[in-house]
């Protein structure tokens, strides 16, 4: 005889006969509902991961994983700090910088963040050079008084490559009329576009020595770092802070953008909870199917009990079918959900091209394409959660089946 008996009978009940086609139909509906719920959860989580990755990539294209700065305006003994930072095995690149608020004026005026950089060292920490629309960072040579602007900033000023812009900083110099802000005319040699309004409309790059002279500084504001693992930034920052001492301040990208990424993480968690409730609703169909199956098989249960089957054995028999329905639904859901998440960007582009629609207009949204990033960790949790719901859904119907009394069930047979 087939062993174990509970598995044999449970599998046999999954094959519909003429008189219980409706139960088989409900079983199929339960599988489809579970599969659709799993597909929806995996796809939404992948899209959320894609947006999260795109936001982090674009932000880290303009800022570094970590920064070491001085307590005052300029950094003391910055060559030593640079040497200590580069000696850390987790630091892949380091570059000094000068940063100050400025007011730019040309055809129009706009406030911006003026950043002085070393063009040769800047690619070690950020990817702005990969997002140049016109010109090159290499044109930011010392004493050239050249400047590279964000594309949106240049548009708001009404200028382009080849034009001149006046930069006014907070540094004052004495005149017979009193203190006057320092200003200098710069030649626009390039434009960049990171896809983030924060930087495209509010960041201007010049050579570090030019920024030092304009702001009356005798050294950089700090040192920017690129790490081998950006999620390991805080432990590395603590290690560097201990080695450098209290005259330096070490910050990470998580500190400077904590609110943004906390909001993204909370949004992902809320979506996971909402879609988990949808899975729970789908599992209710499984409970309905099992309750109808228990009612339909009352006579079979009574006969099994008279042949010596224990309540535990009866309970296991009906749990087999519920678990099997959940397992099949999860299998289809994980397979199609992973495939959909993998191909989703291409599918969205095909729909936009075929039906001439735009889901994310580049004029409105920073990210104009629907991103998708499949995370097998999320897939695993989705499958595990759905299986747990399916398993719990079998308990009450199986318990009701185990409580069947043979005499009452066979009374009218």
- Determine Rg (CA atoms, Å): 32 Å
- The quaternary structure here is single chain
Kindly name the structural category: alpha+beta
**Biggest sheet: strand arrangement:** 2-3-8-5-7-6
Number of E strands: 10
**Mean pLDDT score, rounded?**
82
The total number of structural domains is 2
Order of helices and strands: HHEHEEEEHEEHEHEHEHHHHHH
Sum up the overall morphology in one term.
elongated
Helix count?
Answer: 13
Content of β-strand: 15-25%
Tell me the layout of helices and strands.
Layout: H1 5-13, H2 21-59, E1 66-70, H3 78-87, E2 91-105, E3 109-117, E4 132-134, E5 146-150, H4 151-157, E6 164-175, E7 178-192, H5 197-200, E8 203-207, H6 208-215, E9 222-227, H7 233-244, E10 248-252, H8 253-256, H9 258-296, H10 298-306, H11 311-355, H12 376-402, H13 406-409
Parallel strand pairs: 3-8, 5-7
Antiparallel strand pairs: 1-9, 1-10, 2-3, 2-6, 2-9, 4-7, 5-8, 6-7
Helix pairs in contact: 1-11, 2-9, 2-11, 2-12, 9-11, 9-12, 11-12
């Amino acid at each position: 005889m087939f062993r174990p008996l509970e598995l044999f009978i449970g599998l046999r009940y999954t094959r519909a006969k003429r008189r219980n086609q409706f139960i088989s139909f409900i079983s199929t509906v339960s599988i489809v509902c579970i599969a659709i719920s799993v597909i929806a959860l995996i796809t939404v989580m992948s899209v959320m991961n894609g947006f999260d990755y795109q936001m982090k990539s674009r932000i880290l294209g303009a800022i570094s994983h970590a920064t070491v700065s001085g307590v005052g305006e300029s950094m003391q003994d910055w060559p030593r700090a640079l040497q200590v930072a580069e000696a850390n095995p987790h630091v892949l690149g380091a570059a000094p910088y000068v940063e100050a608020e400025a007011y730019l004026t040309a055809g129009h005026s706009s406030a911006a963040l003026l950043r002085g950089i070393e063009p040769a060292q800047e690619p070690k920490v950020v990817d702005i050079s990969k997002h140049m629309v016109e010109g090159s960072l290499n044109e930011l040579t010392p004493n050239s008084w050249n400047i590279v602007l964000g594309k949106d900033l240049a548009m708001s000023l009404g200028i382009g490559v080849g034009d001149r812009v006046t930069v006014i900083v907070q540094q004052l110099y004495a005149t017979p009329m009193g203190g006057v802000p320092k200003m200098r005319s710069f030649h626009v040699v390039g434009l960049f576009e990171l896809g983030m309004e924060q930087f495209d409309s509010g960041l201007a790059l010049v050579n570090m020595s030019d920024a030092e002279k304009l702001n009356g500084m005798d050294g950089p504001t700090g040192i920017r770092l690129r790490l081998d693992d950006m999620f390991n930034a805080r432990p590395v920052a603590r290690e560097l802070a201990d080695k450098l001492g209290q005259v330096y301040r070490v910050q990470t990208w998580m500190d400077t953008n904590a609110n943004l990424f906390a909001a993204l993480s909370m949004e992902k968690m809320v979506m996971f909870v909402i879609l988990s409730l949808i899975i729970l609703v789908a599992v209710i169909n499984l409970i309905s199917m099992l309750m109808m199956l228990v009612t339909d098989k009352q006579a079979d249960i009574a006969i099994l009990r008279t042949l010596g089957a224990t309540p535990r054995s009866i309970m296991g028999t009906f749990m087999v079918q519920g678990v099997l329905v959940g397992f099949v639904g999860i299998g289809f859901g994980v397979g199609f959900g992973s495939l959909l998440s993998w191909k989703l960007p291409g599918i969205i582009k095909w729909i936009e091209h075929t039906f001439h629609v735009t889901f994310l207009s580049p004029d409105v949204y920073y990210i104009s394409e629907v991103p998708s990033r499949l995370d097998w960790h999320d897939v695993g949790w989705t499958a595990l959660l759905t299986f747990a719901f399916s398993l719990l859904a079998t308990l009450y119907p199986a318990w009701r089946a185990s409580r069947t009394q043979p005499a009452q069930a066979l009374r009218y047979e």
